[in-house]
Amino acid sequence: MDTDPRAKAHAPTHAARAPLAAKAREAMEKLNGEAGHLAIWLRTQANAPSQKPWFTHTDAADAGQMAQGKVAAGQMKASPHLWKWREISPYLDKIAQIAANADVPPVEFAERQQFLLTNPGLAGRLQVASTIRCAVSIYNPGDLARAHLHTPNASRTILSDSGGYTNVEGEKIRAVRGDLILTPNGTWHDHGNDVKKPVVWIDTLDWPILEFLDCIWLDEDMPAGIVDPRANVQIQKTSLEQGYSQRAYGRGGLIPSFLEHNRGAGHGVTPNVHYRGADIRAALEGLRGEKGDPYEGLPLDIVNPVNGAPLFATLGFGAQMIRAGEETLAKRETSNVVYVVLEGRGQTEVGGRTFDWEENDIFVVPNFLWRRHVNKGPKDAVLYTMHDRPLLQKIGQHRVQGRGKDGSVVQIVT
Ligand SMILES: [Fe+2]
Questions:
Q1: CA of 75 to the centre of ligand 1 (A)
Q2: In whole angstroms, what is the distance from residue 233 CA to residue 146 CA?
């Protein structure tokens, strides 16, 4: 036993306790090994979330705090991530080759020819962020996906110049690059490709949030469906003239009052299920000379034409132009944002990392992380965004901060 008071004074008081704590933890972990089959967990660690409000972290180097530890294992934190198109797109060709040579094409046994994006922070879950699922799909000439409906809301962001279609509640919508085609919850929809070249699009869904709510169901037995003998699958009849969404809702501020403004069995979803890339691009171009937003360049919200609400209660959609030579200020918010690069090239600094992006690249900025867009090139860049801001706003949890040029923090939404 050390009787020297000076030694005692200088000894770190926690040093003697640490081994005991470790021993106790080890013993408890052992018990956990025994008790696991009873579906219980003896608490061996403190809660992992950040121990102070995220918006009070003002250190310039702060990139947000990642959850850690056992408790956090059930609350995994998405990482910022960039999926480079030139790295992931060859897998579409590989799927297409398998489909071309197979007795039964993948679309028949897997329902889709696609790959899903998995966020590296989420340990293999089929999610790009806590609330959002993204896939990249290819439909080859002749492919058909059966008519169905489901509770998750879904969207398609078209990457191919043209080809392929989605039929939503009887409206057959031809896919053109930059188009956003929506299949709100409860709408019957089927996909196909009746032209001679493949079509590729990005599917974005609120699937994880519906999964969390244990509220996922789908129906593949359409009462008024017809069987297409080419693939022996049930598809829906085209009951609306082509361009219905454009004619009924394509002119802002002019809403036909004789329509019920509902498509399918869902509630409160947008009646316009087709936003044309050409219209989005023209709107951005028309605003090009405006000052814009210091944090976002020229952002547009894509909304329900009847009431200005987000397209889905869970997911919002937007497009933004980062003009040639434009650099935004840094911003962060409590919502997750997924970006698809429609045009141009540039950089986004996120969470202390820099993503160099170009056409068709996809990247995710998870909540709480600072982001800043830079376009040093000679051409304008156009990004499409999918985000869970509507959901965060609905539950009173949406906050936004920006940084001034001097690095000071500005409260944008408190
Ligand atoms: Fe679907």
A1: 27
A2: 5
Residue ranges of domains in the chain, CATH in brackets = 76-413 (2.60.120.10)
Residues 6+ away with beta carbon under 8 Å from 133: 116, 126, 127, 203, 204, 205, 206, 207, 208
Number of other CB atoms surrounding residue 200 within 10 Å:
21
Residues 6+ apart with CB under 8 A from 368: 54, 64, 65, 332, 334
CB burial readout 249-259, b (16+ within 10 A) else e: bbeeeeeeeee
- Residues 78 and 366: beta-carbon distance below 8 Å: yes
Q: What is the pLDDT of residues 163-187, one digit of tens each?
A: 999 999 999 999 999 999 999 999 9
- Measure 165 CA to ligand 1 centroid, in angstroms: 13
Give the DSSP H or E segment for 246: helix 244-249
What does the chain come to in residues?
414
Ligand 1 centroid to residue 72 C-alpha, Å: 31
**Could you tell me the distance, in angstroms and rounded to a whole number, from the CA of residue 325 to the centre of ligand 1?**
40
pTM: 0.89
Helices then strands, counting H and E runs in the chain, come out as: 10, 25
- The encoded tokens of residue 221 equal 């037995």
Which residues contact residue 184 at a Cβ distance below 8 angstroms, ignoring those fewer than 6 apart?
A: 153, 263, 264, 266, 269, 270, 273, 311, 312
Question: Do 380 and 324 touch, CB atoms closer than 8 A?
Answer: yes
Ligand 1 centre to CA of 189 (Å) is 7
> How far, in Å, from the CA of 11 to the mean position of ligand 1?
64
The edge-to-edge listing of strands for the beta sheet with 154-158 is 114-116, 133-139, 199-205, 154-158, 180-183, 274-275
Q: Residue 381: phi, psi to the nearest 5?
A: -115, 145
Which pairs from 124-128 meet CB under 8 Å and 24+ separation? 125/76, 125/208, 126/207, 126/208, 127/78, 127/207, 127/208, 128/78, 128/81, 128/338, 128/362, 128/364
Distance CA 310, CA 316 (A): 5
Pull the structure tokens for residue 253: 């501020």
Distance CA 88, CA 199 (A): 16
CA of 124 to the centre of ligand 1 (A): 22
Instruction: Give me the sign of the Cα torsion angle 142, 187, 172, 337.
Output: negative
Structure tokens at 394: 């609905």
Quote the CA–CA distance of 340 and 361 in Å, as a whole number: 6
* pLDDT tens digits for range 65-103: 555 555 454 567 899 999 999 999 999 988 888 877 877
